[in-house]
Protein 1
Amino acid sequence: MGLKKNLTSVTFRLIKSLSAGRLQSTDLHTMGQHDFPELKNDRLLKAAKGEAVDKIPVWIMRQAGRYLPEFREFRSKHDFFKICQTPELACEITLQPIDRFPELDASIIFSDILVIPQALGMTVEMRPGVGPVLPEPLVSPEDLARLKFPVDVSKELSYVMEAITLTRHKLRGRVPLIGFSGAPWTLMGYMIEGGGSKTMSKSKKWLYEHPAESKKLLSILTSVVSDYLVGQAKAGAQLLQVFESNAEYLGPELFNEFALPCIRDISEKVKRELGDDKVPMTIFAKGAHYSLEELAQSGYEVVGIDWTVDPSLARLKVGSNVTLQGNLDPCALYADNEQLAQRTHQMVDKFGKQRYIANLGHGIYPDMDPAKVEVFLKAIHSH
Ligand SMILES: Cc1c2[nH]c(c1CCC(=O)O)Cc1[nH]c(c(CCC(=O)O)c1C)Cc1[nH]c(c(CCC(=O)O)c1C)Cc1[nH]c(c(C)c1CCC(=O)O)C2
């Protein structure tokens, strides 16, 4: 019943986009909610569920981005968040790496983790050469009153749901579509620091100085992130990845007290809400090598690891009930082709072919030669 209502409202918004001239009429014809094109490449989903695969599935974090000349060309004409907010622009960027690299086994919707602080009423700008800036960060717990909560994500972030539905159609079943969100602690960090930070000391200060208010903020974020992920799955995302990119600033104690409970709550809420329409979920907590055992027990089918973690040790820690994802050093793509292929093969040897999704250990760097991506992808598939 809830699902039906949600789908109807997504379709309604697509029709509104059409009448506003944002979509072509041909888009609407192919947009029946229950007739997505049949998936032709299900390696990613099979590996996530622990089923055998013919080849190791591979994709790349930040695969749609500045290392692609076609992205830079597109970006020179459009504002970053304008792309995120315009379904057909987000769709076009999502498809760029898929069109270029036939070896990719997954697409990830073009967006950003910082659309959540925006939905909560905060201003976020993407400044060239700087990265994201939140000009009015949360300074003290009184600032929590500034957040617009509760928030109806199906309204505030409807553009992401529309982009997902449109992209599922435009992919024509070539590969599955991944939806994503930032995890609460990582989002809290940006909201307090006002952007990136080398230490996260302002947001860590909150954890020590205002633990109850920190938990309140984290619980607001947990609720919004859960609704957001449910909405993405209903709109057509076939796997959901949660990015806890700032786990590296916490040690096991702070992580277990503040970040992990939210990560657990999110998988539980999302799975409960989706019921029979559940999709596999991935947790990527960058730098949380100290918590791999706990992460493997936190309700996610896939645990992503960064490049500092040895794959064999990670497997020992997580056991055999989860799929591992990762973890080539993004800088290994600067090596010559032969060395890159060799290092990629060594990595796969350590992970093994079962319950494994190949990726880099973090996002690809903007100055990377796209030809190196092809070497990496081919080395995975030829293994
Ligand atoms: C921490 C984080 C952010 N955003 C994201 C994370 C988690 C993953 C990670 O740890 O890298 C996630 C993200 N951001 C982007 C995607 C798109 C999908 C994809 O992976 O292809 C995804 C999955 C686009 C983007 N997000 C951003 C760009 C580049 C901005 C530009 O085009 O000017 C892209 C393509 C900007 C961004 N957005 C963010 C930062 C710190 C930056 C600046 C750093 C940088 O420039 O790479 C916040």
Note: DSSP finds 17 helices and nine strands in the chain.
Protein 2
Amino acid sequence: MRLETLRIRGLRCLADASISLEPGVTVFSGANGAGKTSVLEAAFLLSHARSFRAGAKDALLQRGADALSVFAELRHEDGRVRRLGLGRQGARWEAKMDGETASLSELVGECAVVCFEPGSHALIAGGAEERRRYLDWGVFHVEHEFISAWRRYQRALKQRNTLLRAATPPPEALFLPWEAELDATASTIDRLRELYLAALRPHIGRALAGLLPELGPVEMRYRRGWADDVSLGELLASQRGRDLARGHTTIGSHRADWSIVFEHAPLREHLSRGQEKLTALGCTLAQASLYAERRGEWPIVCLDDLASELDKSHQAAVVDQLRSVGAQVLVTGTEVPEALQVGPARVFHVEQGLLNPLL
Ligand SMILES: Nc1ncnc2c1ncn2[C@@H]1O[C@H](COP(=O)(O)OP(=O)(O)OP(=O)(O)O)[C@@H](O)[C@H]1O
């Protein structure tokens, strides 16, 4: 799939920017703080309804503006063109598709954007939340049952946590329906996550063998968030006292995690910062390639600040691979990265929130 047009209003320093995009590689170059990453952020928003920058929720809205919006024309591999819109007025987000109001999940389901950026090493070195988000975004795009199980799970979790925080401990009968709902939906979520990871493993293996051959074969480990041989319902009942003391639910799908283990670097701490980044890049590319296998088209791939994140040979290898599969690639840099000076690429100069095509 590819973006044909992108219009961004009220997002950080982009007051009103409108561009047409070509297939293949597009580079956004300009000085620090010019607004390059914000362009990628806008594309990513259409696919995730959040930014990839930590804590960006409120900072996204341009200072002094009362609304932000991103509009795009998205062309699918089969020729379908969808008009997508995402706007935020105050704290409320609103999605549109082809002029009609749509839910955020419909919008996110239509448009797939993956991003490798300076914060991506958090996928490997950071907390479990980032890894669950990565996993669930992938599962959502290939397993249709996932979203309803996930929503039901979140609702039941919220209800149980409210009971756990009540001033006087509520009777057991109030917990039972929510614990039964958590049990049922967690087993669906767990099954779909397992299925997704099983499909992802060969893609991760190939991507990491290409990026980090010196670390040897790779294994992915998954922890579902509660002990293996017991049902979540039974555990929730037996651990209710402990959860009451803590004021929240301490086990379940919301505590799941996964990790990557290399034969020659069995602990996360064995990886250098550069190796963490390459591992995160491998995970991003693997997710994109599994998406392509299942959905018949590559997601749009954003590479933020490519030249400062990867050495030249890795930059060239990644861009060549993405060119060879025909993915649309949006790259930022203070200069056009050397690896992109060979082969076709369109360049926009970005300056103080204005985007001007150069080539
Ligand atoms: N809410 C906001 N309102 C207005 N301007 C903002 C807001 N948030 C950030 N900015 C400014 O917008 C610009 C956004 O920069 P962005 O991160 O997109 O730049 P960049 O070109 O990628 O920079 P770098 O090369 O330094 O990574 C910065 O100048 C920043 O100070």
Note: Residues 1-112+299-359 form a domain with the Rossmann fold fold (CATH 3.40.50.300).
